[in-house]
Amino acid sequence: MSEAPVVTRFAPSPTGYLHIGGARTALFNWLYARGRGGKFLLRIEDTDRARSTPEATAAILKGLTWLGLDWDGDAISQFERAGRHAEVAQAMLAAGHAYKCFATQDEIAAFREAAKAAGTSTLYRSPWRDAAPDSHPDAPHVVRLKVPRDGETVIHDQVQGDVTWRNDQLDDMVLLRSDGTPTYMLAVVVDDHDMGVTHVIRGDDHLANAARQMQIYHAMGWAVPVWAHIPLIHGPDGKKLSKRHGALGVEEYQAMGYPAAAMRNYLARLGWSHGDDEFFTDEQAKEWFGFDGIGKSPARFDFKKLDNLSGQHFAVAEDAALLHELEQFLEATDAAPLTPAQKDRLARAMPHLKSGTRNFPQLIEKAHFVLSERPFIPDEKAAKLLDNVSRGILAELTPHLQNASWTRDALEEAVAKVAEAHDLKLGKLAQPLRAALAGRTVSPSVFDMMIVIGRDETLARIADTKP
Question: In which residues does the motif 'HIGH' region occur (predicted)?
Fold first, then answer.
């Protein structure tokens, strides 16, 4: 008999951007499902109507799309399923697994204050738990889950191990509020069950919720999913990741120019490992990812490691894919789109732009020589390299380039010959030549640039430097 297919889910609340921690949770769920031929589902937990916004939902979908985390089917709205949630609560009520509680907020608050003053447990025990229905007043009430008072609840967690709660330490949590709306705790379980979720992979801040949610699974006689509660992400200082550590939203990393493949690779390594492997592809990650590689301690976000991985991904990326993602970066940062001519020149230059590049702003800076048009106005650093002596040597270089066959070896030989005549090292002549060709001090090799832009353009740019 074959095993049931794996179904995971990501269930963000649309109250803001897609947090980097949420993105990693989504990635872990995506990797686990995709690596096993399963489904990865998306649920928007929008029951908090005061804080949920369509803009936040759009930002979450946009962030997931940029990261390349495709989900199966349509995103599900938790709010739209409120009727189904209430239906399950009523079923538990009818079966005796839940009860109507008529205690007011003032009564509950008074109980807790008295318990605190007496130094006893503030865990509220409703007097309505075993009250006869004929004693119920005609008054507003909530519906509470009837949690067993004895025994234990054990979460068999794939990351944390077995975690045990005494049932007498769990409260009879509210399932339906007095206005008939379902609580988050009920909605999560009903949705996960109805969506066929087999594995719940989420932050370990939800571990206590699992103990309470398990009671609903048991009350309904539903299969309990596999739990995997992953440690949170901390900053370099070991404290919970916050704005003081830098960017928190996924869209900020796109705006900084990191390629999506590098972000997936880096986020996968935050709290999960596969031997000593740091750099890997999506296919490798899908094949390797499993709970046994997830650590119990919080991961620490490290921009240096992200930069390093990003550079490795630039180096191996396909030219066409980089060009496509560069266009997405320009759109995301509200920059001017590329013209057809710029795209054509960039496509020719891309093999020479990737090495040593760690983000798209760096790539754009290096690509200035093909993105701009003559005459090139050198920036401050480049202008210092184009003094009268350097301009004279470049003028002397011109006939050598006019007669050279346009290959890298021939160009290198021509420049080396002129440099030698002036008792200069090749690099010393390459500096003003770079300033003439790119107007910048950062660019690909001068010989690569000459090959890309061609003889006529090279000579024209050198001629533009004449005093």
Answer: 12-22
